[in-house]
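Run folding on both entries below.
>entry_1
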Amino acid sequence: MSCAITAKRFGTPVDKPLAAALVLAVLALLLVLMVLGWRARGRRQAGLTVPGATPATAGEPHLTVAGFYVATTSADAPLERIVADRLGFRGRVTVRVFDAGIELAIAGREAIFIAADVIRGFDRASLAIDRVVERDGLTRIRWRLDGPDATTDVDSYLRLPATADLVRAASHLDPHRTTSKSGNYDQ
């Protein structure tokens, strides 16, 4: 039995190990291009300043809820991921609501405290960069991220079991009192 197969279209034999090597080379090239693209995005966003840990003066949280951090994207661009600092990868998250803001404690990373003065609103969404869920299945927090030249509005997407509880507990932080397209967080 031969290690060659015949390409039916052209009638020329193709060596299986050669074909496998070619496929692996193409996959390796794609992987290298993805890594280079991720690094380039990181360089473009290097000037964005991700907030630090929760201040000691924040007091006790009004609400603590566990869920999943999905992504942070540019505002109104759910397919343009922000990879700066601790925002690039999804993971389990514990969300704490304080009078002074919201803390996102993503597993394996330093907590991010989004101060009340940079929060632009809350909403629901159905998709983000790598997640599509049922209608209004994601909680979106819109906030401002400081950059070298200006501030950038971003959307952080969370998959939480208690979206209505989070929005009620954080309602004092929402300057615009936005709601989902259906107009109700208590669905």
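>entry_2
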Amino acid sequence: MLIGCMSRTVFGVACMFVYVMLYVGTNMLTKLLAPSLPLVQIALFRYGFAVPVILFVLVAAGKSAFRIGSAHVHVVRGLLAAAGSVFGYAAIAALPLGDATALFFTAPLLVAAGAVFVLGERSGVLRGVCIAVGFAGVFMIAQPHFAGLGGIAAGLGNALCAALGVLMVRRFRNTEGALPLAFTTSIVCVAVLAVPAYLTWSTVPPTVLVALIALGAMGGAATILLNVAYQNASAPMLAGIDFLAVPLSVAAGAAIWDQPIALQAESGCILVVAAGLLNVGQDHMIRYAAPAIRVARQLRRMLPGGGNGGPNDTLIGQR
């Protein structure tokens, strides 16, 4: 298996990187579709067309992949996704793409904080600094003036729903499979969004239908990857990678919608990318530094005097 060829952490990180790309792509499609269709209808198509994609992967994985330990976990996860999608699409429609994405990325901070209190995961000082620097970069990119309070509230509501959903995936990773969670999330979303979408239904042209199908396929793949990522790597680490979507969204907004990129935004992009990469890399630095320190201690003991009493020996021991 693929996971057998690499560590669970590396596999989770790889899934998160691909998820970020798909996340930015779905937001771009949503921004393009928002003027022509009601937001609830877009959300319905997004999850409706995601179901076949997820079901295909689920069937290919075999019966053993489909395990449901607690049905209420899947229902709550689906409700959070449905509410979050509507909030998120409202923010994307009302705000510049970079601003809406920046607001969403208060979610990794909520995840990192919640992982400490809800999941009991440790978050060191360096990781906390990484998240704080990334958070500062997010709001540097967002610019000091937002388009309206409604869009800001919608963006924060999306972030809250996303953070709660991620913590649920991590909390129940030993009893709930990633694929079943992705499948049931889409099913619950379709059921919840069907009625309001019907009441506000708008005719869908063929060209728009193609875009909606692509939105659903990308969204389905992103849902699977997000669940798999958080079941294989720590929440604080993945939170740092999430920030990479912000500079990508700013670049997309500038390229497609002619949204200007100020020096402040460019500086924020640098902070976000640096924080994300440092957050990911610190675990590997610590992992590879520990054996080197042990070897240094052993070599020191082999020297005349056995390494007793020397100031360098004291320094190595402190490390």
